[in-house]
Amino acid sequence: MADKTTHFGFKQVDWEEKQRRVAGVFDSVADKYDVMNDLMSLGIHRLWKRFAVEQSGARPGQSILDLAGGTGDLAARLSRIVGPEGRVVIGDINASMLNNGRERLLDQGIAGNLCFVQANAESLPFPDSSFDCITMAFGLRNVTDKQKALDSMFQILKPGGRVLVLEFSKPVAPGLKSIYDLYSFKVLPLMGRVIAGDEESYRYLAESIRMHPDQDTLKSMMERAGFEDCDYFNLCGGIVALHRGFRF
Ligand code: SAM
Question: For the whole model, what pTM was predicted?
Answer without folding.
Answer: 0.97
